Amino acid sequence: MDITRDNPTGNDYQAALARGLLPIREVARQTGINPVTLRAWERRYGLIVPLRTSKGHRLYTREEVARIHLILTWLDRGVAVGQVKGLLKDQDAPASLDTSSDSPWEEQRRHLLEAIGNLAERQLDECFNAAMALYPPKTLYRQLLQPLLQDLEQRWRTQFGAQVERVFLYSWLRTKLGTRLYHNNRQYSAAPILLVNASDLPMEPGLWLTAWLVSSADCAVEVFDWPVPAAELALATAQIQPRALLFYSSQPLAAGQLPRLLEGHPCPCLLGGPAAAIHQAELAPGATLAEGPLDALQALANLGLLLNR
């Protein structure tokens, strides 16, 4: 069998895997980059060029997996995907670049802010879909969504019509990310992580962003988007049998509420959102805190709870 980039005539797919080449689904699992994004990096930017069998199956070498991890390093520094190829060629590229006001990320945030200001769902959806096709979720959250929400919070403090913008965005976000969770969950059979809204707010964007990031790490996720009485939550956990419970709140919890939330469950429990910082002194030693969505993702990984077993 001979599989090369110039002459992809091999027809023995299993033999190629036996040689150590990796199919796209395995590369996606190892790197956290979904197949759609890997294909976009290949077609639009030539960042990676996998081998092909005669039937068109993509096969990746270990070197290409290492290259993908290097690409992720640049993306996490705020570099736009269109700039990465040149940096990979330049061995003397600086460790960090100026990604300030004129960066593509800033331009994308302006487009999203405009769509939100116009209550333009289709425009908002198209902008986000375009970004989601090119960037992994962690990068999207860190470089686009987190700064976007910070900009909006500043705008909403003084702007007339702030509440309708907030409701529009949060409703769209819940629908968009909830749909992603639904489709991702169809692929997983292991026990889910159960995220529970512990605040009185009807919509907690951080809850859904956390759920999306966890789901994107190949982990089943269920979301209770409203507070649940302790006795009923015990019933739910007995039926769902989650691998972990993550309570999320951006508000301070009522006096005595925290022990009732975290104690007596048959699985690990975490407290996420700004409430984690507010109530830090009240938590028992060893309790797991996760103030932001990325913190929650890292905390779950540290506990070994993201393994899809």
Which features does this protein show?
309 residues; alpha/beta; Multidrug-efflux Transporter Regulator, Chain: A, Domain 2; Rossmann fold; five-stranded parallel β-sheet; three-stranded antiparallel β-sheet; 8 strands; globular
Short description:
With about 300 residues, this protein is an alpha/beta fold. The chain is built from 14 helices and eight strands. The strands form two sheets. Strands 5-4-6-7-8 form a five-stranded parallel β-sheet. A three-stranded antiparallel β-sheet has the order 1-3-2.
Textual characterization of the structure:
The protein has 309 residues and is an alpha/beta fold. The protein folds into three domains: 13-89, Multidrug-efflux Transporter Regulator, Chain: A, Domain 2, CATH 1.10.1660; 104-159, no CATH class; 185-302, 3-Layer(aba) Sandwich (Rossmann fold). Helices cover 53% and strands 9% of the residues. It is built from 14 helices and eight strands. The strands form two sheets. A five-stranded parallel β-sheet has the order 5-4-6-7-8. Strands 1-3-2 form a three-stranded antiparallel β-sheet. Helix 12 links the parallel strand 6 (244-248) and strand 7. Helix 4 crosses helix 5 and helix 6 packs antiparallel against helix 7 (121-134). The radius of gyration is 22 Å and the shape is globular. The model is unreliable at 6-10 (pLDDT under 50).
